[in-house]
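quick one if you have a minute, typing this from the bus. below you get a single protein, a line of residues and a line of whole numbers that encode the local backbone shape. could you go over both lines and see whether the tokens make sense for that sequence. anything you notice is useful, everything is just below.
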Amino acid sequence: MTFSTQDLTYRVTLDTENNLFIVYIPNSDHRASGVTIEEAISKLKKTA
């Protein structure tokens, strides 16, 4: 799924093997993961 905020546009996927949400910016190398979507987004904002 693709989401947009004022800061960025990102996609969310779920790694079912490791039970982690992966959030990434399309067409970019920026990505982060976390146990919750909120945690992954927070980490992504710090790296973007």
